[in-house]
Specification:
Elements lengths: L2 E5 L3 H14 L2 E5 L2 H13 L6 E5 L7 H10 L7 E6 L5 H8 L4 E5 H15 L4
Parallel strand pairs: 1-2, 1-3, 3-4, 4-5
Length: 128
Amino acid sequence: MPSVLVVEDDYQLRRVVTNSLNELGFQYDEASNGREALQKLCEATSEGLMYDCILLDIVMPEIDGWQVLEAVKSNPLWAPIKVVVLTGYANSPSDASKVAKYDGVHIQKKGYFLQTIGELLKRLLDGK
């Protein structure tokens, strides 16, 4: 079963996403900010485990989503992880250009994403 790391600082939204993942049968872990996400990635790596996908909020305290994305995609062990960048704002050209420079990264508006979470993850993680 695919493993997903949910990185979202809004507790209520994180609950909605993790409840959806649970209903869809995905294994998941969660982080409330970028620093915690990087810690979870390090812990998984040290245990010989790896997430298949990261659902990543952009606007967060401490370390934002763009910094987490850069850390993930610049680490050879983490670079293969699929990342879905979640934004509450309309997709801006600058966001699209930041995402376009990485393989395996997609951007989704939060409201739309919640309606299609299962379909999107199954497409991204086909065969896992």
